Amino acid sequence: MKYFSTRGGDELLSFEETVLTGLAPDGGLYIPERIPQLPADWRTAWAGLSFAELAVEVLALYIDPAELPRAELRALVDRSYSTFRAPDVTPLRPLHGRTYVLELFHGPTFAFKDVALQLLGNLFEFFLQRRNARKAPGEKRERLTVVGATSGDTGSAAIYGLRNKTDIEIFILHPKGRVSPIQEAQMTTVTDANVHNVAVKGTFDDCQDIVKALFGDKEFNAKHRLGAVNSINWARILAQTVYYFLSYFHLGRQLAATLTPDELTEVKIQYVVPTGNFGDILAGYYAKRMGLPIDKLVVATNSNDILARFWKSGAYEKVDSSTPGAGGATAPAEGSSDGKQSAEVGGVKETLSPAMDILVSSNFERLLWYLAFEALAANDAATRRGACDTVNSWMQSVKTDGRVQVPTKVLELARRDFVAERVTDEQTLETIRSYFESEPSYVADPHTAVGLAAARMIAPHNPPSTVQVVLSTAHPAKFSDAVTRALQGSAKFDFERDVLPSEFRGLLEKERRVIDVEAPRIELVKEVIERFARDEDAPAAAGASV
Ligand SMILES: *Cc1c(COP(=O)(O)O)cnc(C)c1O
């Protein structure tokens, strides 16, 4: 299997190159040259597999065994998911009625990004080690310096994915004092020598601008081989397809306990996904296209609703032009590591589900490619290039005009597989309350609550045989402010007893390692990277410069 850029189409990359490159040089995102189909016997052969076993089966469909032999893939997958606390890795829990939650937050940082980043870290390390093992003595080792900015949500998942990895340094910038205490502690209490938390006196936007400037600095970039772990990396999407398959089997077993075989065959499965950069739900789209019987995928956004608006009108636009008095287009911001964009006028709204506060949705381009391809309705290399050209022109419009209107045919294709809903902060709080008070009682984090709220909005339009699986993307203790705000009026709610995991106790008192940067200036951050990018522990690095 080879990969190509959504804006290129001609050049084909191996899986390894795709993973190490991240974003294509032409600005596009890598996608597989075809979507593999499930083996004919998948329903029986895969039915009893564990998460790790299933991951090997699914990933092997996308990775040439000559590049990554099955036994090595198995070892990488085992290592990646041994860090999860739940035996099922991503357990499925029944709520009332025909609603289930797929809990994706049992990894080291209590958020769903662990599912992808635990694997990505091991893939990076594996490929670098293999390249370095092939080098002649004295030849310069390949190393990777991962740099990112975080407002708190995603930095820790990247850090836990890359901690203690050979030939990789990670620098995560956060705005000093502007990250929640738990999130700050989660990041800075990781004291591995290759992890560098950089506390910048400034805002999240300052941090992000610095990271963008570093990536734009060709000389510095080449010298340190900067790498990003943002959600556009193909391996992250691929890792996330696995839990759609696993939950399908879990759901089948749970439903078989209450439904007749006839009823079971009638069931329509809807996956409801709280969405920001469209990574998590895109993985579901791949699963569906591979042959997993998913009826509809539900895009659940907060009030940063560019995606919900797209499914209403076919316009992909940063600013809602249908609202009177809305401002003009804002300047595009690219290359961000949290996927967040600057909070300019008419920009990102701050919500109770901050991991979904985005202006544009970086992975959406991958879906646009498939829609463009299908709308062209042929199946040869010329059409592939045609789809790339179409995507290119759409993304150019977004860049220059802040918007693009896709043809009706494309919107119809998008509606075949997806439904979209927008959820306000008020609805989010109300949903947290109502699920806490339901039987069985469930404490949802605000992101999961966006999904639960969207599921409820859609439900009246569904056929009665529909079952909804809502993806739960974070542990409620990670977003304690919103959860406490929703539940403080409830006499039976006790944060410490009902929510706080034992791993979070004492976290604030643990030893920390953090590098302070006194002003948001790129030179100061460069100095930090120069000073802390270690070389000495690399076995063959004597005398080599990085
Ligand atoms: C990143 C994140 C999301 C959104 O995921 P996308 O793949 O960007 O759509 C939702 N919830 C939480 C808690 C997250 O960290």
From TrEMBL:
EC number: 4.2.3.1
PROSITE patterns: DEHYDRATASE_SER_THR
MF annotations from Gene Ontology: pyridoxal phosphate binding; threonine synthase activity
InterPro entries in alphabetical order: Ser/Thr_deHydtase_PyrdxlP-BS, Thr_synth_N, Thr_synth_N_sf, Thr_synthase-like, Threonine_Synthase, TrpB-like_PALP, TrpB-like_PALP_sf
Cofactor requirements of the protein: pyridoxal 5'-phosphate
UniProt xrefs under Pfam families: PALP, THR4_C, Thr_synth_N
Residue stretches making up the Threonine synthase N-terminal domain: 2-81
Modified residues (N6-(pyridoxal phosphate)lysine): K113
Family named by the database record: Belongs to the threonine synthase family.
Protein name: threonine synthase
Species of the source: Phanerochaete sordida
